[in-house]
From TrEMBL:
Keywords: Oxidoreductase. Pfam families: Aldedh. Residues 16-477 form the Aldehyde dehydrogenase domain. Belongs to the aldehyde dehydrogenase family. This is Aldehyde dehydrogenase. The keyword Hydrolase does not apply. Residues 458-494 are annotated as: Disordered. The active site is at E253. InterPro entries: Ald_DH/histidinol_DH, Ald_DH_C, Ald_DH_CS_GLU, Ald_DH_N, Aldehyde_DH_dom. It comes from the Bacteria.
Length: 494
């Protein structure tokens, strides 16, 4: 599949164009440590061209296109992505090491599901509505596209996060410059080919890959009206500062240190099985994973053994092997980061019940054994900072109040979970967790629900109508008493 992609150019203004410099970014297989492809490293002048193309698309009529027409074009793109799911799965496994069965079931499927949800929401979204105040004043309230959007995405779920930003932006009438992660740019090349095939107007979607310096140039570009970013909290703070200086709109979906509160009436085996994917999918490289498992002190050993048994049952190896459940980490740098956390945990007094190092039978590739740490205290670095690897720490608590306090006592607030046989009790505990999403007994909130975080986990929400909200600017037009009532055509512009 890689050989069939055109990776010599950037996609700008509806055309494949040569970059302004010859620098290239190598794509290295996490499983073999070999270079499998390379893509152009965009120059600042390429960013200028992409932003200008997006602006030209807006000014040329895209922002005034009817919602019905935008829905039709996004649906056409959705059909193309759906038809190419096997190719996307292979590319993502190759470039960032997600186990192929998870790439097929999650990485290549969730983008289509995200688009389906947004297409459904867009048909009811109030792009135009008339409101009447208590004093009798009336206004036509419109929600207009925010403008040119810079979408900066990470490497861990590259297609899903790209689509999560691109879809609502296009439905709102914005034009997008997508900046891919250097570690995983290949799927974005296929996405650009499909955008072209689906017939989106030139300039509505532009795609490039860039180093950190040029990426920052895009974020602070005066022609960009909004930045949407998914990635680390450290990078998010930098982006927030840059956008704040220019009062540029920004949405940030950042890191997490999510807690699973296991109540004393929970079933140990069922909880461990739920955490198979809830804590370890994509080899631990997902920001919403439950990496702190809070268990009642009197049942600590029981839950620890159940979790360790589950982890030991997960085959680790070549991500292209159908049997593999834990693959390599994305880079040597990421593996070194995880190993530093493991070393620090041991120094602080935690112990690895299972895992804790590199697998001896895998001398090549950036592998770290899936690890369950015990004797973890809430204030340890391994319990406070995002590791982004296959590492879970068990923390014992004395009662429900302490469990909630521990769950909330980190700089993050992205996700969480409660496990219990008493659903009413579980709901009460979930309501006390200071986080954007809580999963009850492993049940996901779904793609129609807003997703995002509090505290250091971000600003704003994605998915559902809240996801479209971040790409529009509301405008109120006061209506004189004798003015004809404007047609709102339901919730879709005509």
């Amino acid at each position: 599949m890689i050989d069939t992609l055109s990776t010599e150019h950037l996609y700008i203004g509806g055309r494949w164009v040569a970059p302004d410099r010859t620098d290239r970014l190598g794509v290295i297989s996490p499983a073999t440590e070999e270079v499998v492809a390379s893509v152009p490293a965009a120059a600042p002048s390429d960013v200028d061209a992409a932003v200008a193309a997006a602006r030209a698309a807006l000014d040329g009529g895209w922002a005034r296109t009817s919602v019905a027409d935008r829905i039709a074009l996004v649906r056409a793109l959705r059909e193309e992505i759906d038809a190419h799911r096997p190719a996307f799965a292979e590319l993502i496994t190759t470039e960032m090491g997600c186990p192929i069965t998870q790439a097929r079931a999650i990485q290549a499927v969730s983008p289509v599901q995200i688009m389906d949800e947004y297409l459904d929401v867009a048909q009811r979204y109030p792009f135009r509505e008339v409101r009447t105040s208590l004093d009798g004043a009336s206004a036509l309230v419109t929600r207009e596209p925010v403008g040119v959007v810079a979408a900066v995405i990470p490497w861990n779920v590259p297609l899903g996060i790209a689509v999560q930003k691109l879809t609502p932006a296009l439905l709102a009438g914005c034009a997008v410059v997508l900046k891919t992660a250097p570690e995983a740019p290949l799927d974005a090349y296929l996405l650009a080919e499909l955008v072209e095939k689906a017939g989106l107007p030139p300039g509505t979607f532009n795609m490039l890959c860039a180093d950190r310096e040029t990426s920052e140039y895009l974020v602070r570009h005066p022609g960009v009206d909004k930045v949407t970013f998914t990635g680390s909290s450290a990078a998010g703070r930098r982006i927030a500062a840059l956008c704040g200086n220019d009062l540029r709109r920004v949405t940030l979906e950042l890191g997490g240190k999510s807690a699973a509160i296991v109540l004393d009436d929970a079933d140990a085996a069922a909880t461990a099985e739920s955490l198979r994917m809830g804590s370890f999918r994509n080899s631990g490289q997902i920001c919403t994973l439950k990496t702190r498992v809070l268990v009642p002190a009197q049942r600590r050993d029981e839950f620890a053994d159940a979790l360790a048994d589950m982890v030991r049952s997960r085959p680790q190896g070549d991500p292209h092997d159908e049997r593999t459940q834990i693959g390599p980490l994305v880079s040597a740098r990421q593996r070194a980061t995880v190993e530093r956390y493991l070393d620090g945990a041991r120094t602080d007094g935690a112990k690895a019940l299972t895992g804790g190092g590199r697998p001896d039978r895998l001398p090549h590739g950036w592998y770290v054994e899936p690890t369950v740490l015990v004797d973890v205290e809430p204030d340890m670095r391994v319990a406070q900072e995002e590791i982004f690897g296959p590492v879970v720490g068990l923390i014992a608590y004395s009662d429900e109040t302490e469990a909630v306090r521990i769950a909330n006592a980190t700089p993050y607030g992205l996700n969480g979970a409660v496990f219990t046989s008493d659903l009413e009790r579980g709901m009460r505990v979930a309501s006390r967790m200071h986080t954007g999403t809580v999963e009850l007994n492993g049940s996901p909130a779904g793609l129609a629900a807003p997703m995002g975080g509090v505290k250091g986990s971000g600003i704003g929400r994605e998915n559902g109508p809240e996801g479209i909200d971040t790409y529009v600017e509301p405008k109120a037009i006061g209506l004189p008493p004798d003015a004809p009532v404007p047609s709102t055509a339901g919730t879709v512009n005509r």
